[in-house]
TrEMBL record:
SUPFAM superfamilies: Cysteine proteinases (SSF54001). This is SENP2 protease. One of its GO terms (biological process) is protein desumoylation. GO terms for molecular function: deSUMOylase activity. Keywords: Hydrolase, Protease, Thiol protease. It holds the Pfam family Peptidase_C48. The gene is Senp2. Residues 33-197 form the Ubiquitin-like protease family profile domain.
Length: 227
């Protein structure tokens, strides 16, 4: 059967985003971020996603969460954790100016570990902090660092003491979440972990979905709309 015209139009648009024009052409602008063709090209097969793509996609997830029927999502940007871990709560205190992160259901913390992307997820409803790594490495120390941050943020912003013992910290095991089968897809895994979690959906994708997810993300970022 012939491909439907909508799908063909999308495919040609995605190919054009990769192939025509100049690297510095602006293809999307939102969330105080500008995405160029050069940024979009990191979504080509085996490309390494950069901060702009990661942060823009997190912005799309937060935007969607404002709709009826979705958990309320807050996302830190990709520079948050490295700043927190190298300073302390003091160093990132201003990042949540005018925001009460505790009014949300889910907090997403995309993490850049030199050459690898991972994701930390705080579920305020369940009092859990979970670490998602598509290479199966443990992040227990990262969970602890974020719990300490939450304690200090709660004390300072709301004058409420969190009870650390009520919280469950857990690094997801390789049998619990899909694992990448190359050295390039960690950023896409993080975006899709965040996508499924921010819909309260079980994580059921596989490494085989990655080429499709990459192309889909190009369209979504250009149109500022999740499919």
């Amino acid at each position: 059967s012939p491909l439907n015209p909508l799908f063909q139009a999308m495919e040609s648009e995605i190919s054009a985003a990769f192939d025509s024009g100049e690297p510095e052409d602006i293809l999307s602008r939102a969330f105080k971020l500008t995405v160029t063709r050069e940024d979009i090209c990191t979504l080509q097969p085996l490309g390494w996603l950069n901060d702009r793509i990661m942060n823009f996609y997190m912005g799309l997830l937060v935007e969607r969460s404002k709709k009826e029927g979705y958990p309320a999502v807050y996302a830190f940007n990709t520079f948050f954790y490295s700043k927190l871990s190298s300073t302390s709560h003091k160093g990132v205190k201003k990042w949540t100016k005018g925001v009460d992160i505790f009014e949300h259901d889910v907090i997403l913390v995309p993490i850049h570990l030199r050459i690898h992307w991972t994701l930390l997820v705080v579920d305020l409803r369940e009092k859990t902090i979970k670490y998602f790594d598509s290479l199966g490495q443990k992040g227990d120390h990262i969970c602890k660092t974020v719990l300490k941050y939450l304690e200090e943020e709660s004390r300072e912003k709301r004058n409420i003491e969190l009870t650390a013992s009520e919280w469950t910290l857990h690094s997801m095991g390789t049998e619990e979440i899909p694992q990448q089968n190359n050295t390039n897809d960690c950023g896409v895994f993080v975006c899709k972990f965040a996508d499924f979690i921010s819909r309260d959906k079980p994580i059921i994708f596989t490494p085989e979905h990655m080429p499709y997810f990459r192309r889909k993300m190009v369209w979504e970022i250009i149109h500022q709309q999740l499919l």
